[in-house]
Amino acid sequence: MARPREFDADEALEKAMELFWDVGYDEASLSELLGAMAITKGSFYKAFQDKQSVYLATLDRYNDQVVGNTVAFLGDPAEGTGGDRILALFGRIADLAQKEGDRLGCFLCNALVDKAGGSEAEAKLQAMTRRLENGFCRALQDDGLEETDARGTARGILTAYFGLRVLGRAGLSADMAADCIRQVERMLGRVR
Amino acid sequence: MARPREFDADEALEKAMELFWDVGYDEASLSELLGAMAITKGSFYKAFQDKQSVYLATLDRYNDQVVGNTVAFLGDPAEGTGGDRILALFGRIADLAQKEGDRLGCFLCNALVDKAGGSEAEAKLQAMTRRLENGFCRALQDDGLEETDARGTARGILTAYFGLRVLGRAGLSADMAADCIRQVERMLGRVR
DNA sequence: AGAGTTAGGAACCGAATGGTACAAAACACA
DNA sequence: TGTGTTTTGTACCATTCGGTTCCTAACTCT
Prior knowledge:
Two copies of one chain form a homodimer. By secondary structure, chain A is mainly alpha-helical. Chain A contains nine helices and no strands. Chain A has helices at about 10-25, 30-35, 40-45, 50-75, 80-100, 105-115, 120-140, 145-170, 175-185. In chain A, helix 1 crosses helix 4, helix 5 (about 80-100) crosses helix 7 and helix 5 packs parallel to helix 8 (about 145-170). The structure holds a DNA duplex.
C-alpha cells in the first residue's frame, strides 16, 4: 500500500558483487557502486544499511551461488569420479582465466587477501573456505579415500585452487595453467 | 652544502613497504603512510614524487630483498638438494603463517590480487613472479630434472606457493599447513 | 660570519569520500 | 478522488583524500 520499488534488489546486489569482486572493497567507491547498481543514493540507503552491509551481503551471495555451485559440482556423481570432477573444475578455471580480459579471479580468494569488512566478513570467508575444502574432501572420499587421507589431499588441492586463482587474476598463460593442472593430477595420484 | 636529511630514506621506504604489505595500496592513506614512515608531508613530497611512486619503490624493494633472498636460498647448494630447499622454504612459510598475529602473507601475492599501481606495478609484479618461478625451476634442475620437466613442476610449486600464502593471510592452522606441504612433497616425487 | 642551498612543517587547496535530511513523486487502498 | 505510505532524487553534511605552497630552520661552504 505504498510506492513500489523501481529496481530489483537482487539484481542490484549482483551488480554490487561484480564490482567488489573486480576492484575490492575500498577501491569500489560509493558513487561507482551506485552506478553499477543503477540506483541513486536515496534508494541505496533506504534498501540497505550502508556500504559495508552491502559488501557482507555480496559475500553471502557469492557463497550461495558460486561456492554452492562449485561444491554441488564436486559432489555430483553424474560428472564422473571424484578425481574427474576436481580436474574438470580446475580445467574450467584455467579456461576461464585464459580468456583475454577475464582477470577477476575468485571473489573469495580476493576478499581473503583484501581483509576488508571487519571480523564479520572474515568469519564468512573462513566458512566459505571450509565449505570448499569439504567439497574437495567429499569428492575424494567418493573415490574410496578414507577420511584422513582425503582431508589432507583436499587441503593440498585447496591450496592449488587458491594459487591458480591468484595467477589467473595476475594474467595466466595457457601453458602455465596446463602445468598447474598436471600437478593437481599428481596430487590425485594420477602420475603422468 | 645544504641542510641534511633528518630521516633515513631507506628506512622510511621499509616502513612504507610494511604498511602497503599489510593493508594494500588504497587502504594505506597518505596520513597513515606518513605516520608509518615517521616523516611529514613536506619531507615526503620532497624526497619522493607521490604515493604511487613510493608504492612502486616498495615493490622494487620487495623484489631486491625478499624475492632476492628467496631465490638465493633456492639456489644455494649448501642448503641440501633442490627438493630439500623447496621443502625448507615451504616449511619456513608455514611456520611463519602459524605464528599468532602474523597475517601478512606475501607482498607479491597480495599486490597481484590488489591490482593497484597501474601497468607499471603490473609489469614489476609479473617480473617478480617469473623470477620466483625460475628460482623453483633451477632448484629442480639441480636435482637432475631436465628443463621442460623442471619448468612444469616449478609452475605447480609456484601455484602451491601462492595458495599457501593466501591461506596464511587468511589465518592458517598448523595441520592445514602440514597437509599443504605434504602435497608439495608429492609434486617433488617424494611419495609419503 | 655570511651566503647559498636544501629539508621540514604548517597552512591551505579542490575534489571526493561515506552518509543524512527532506521534499517531491508514485503507488495502494478506501 | 483523496489519504496514507513508501520510494526516489537532490541538496547538503562533515571529514578525509592526495597534493601544493611557502616560509622558516638547519646545514655546508667560502
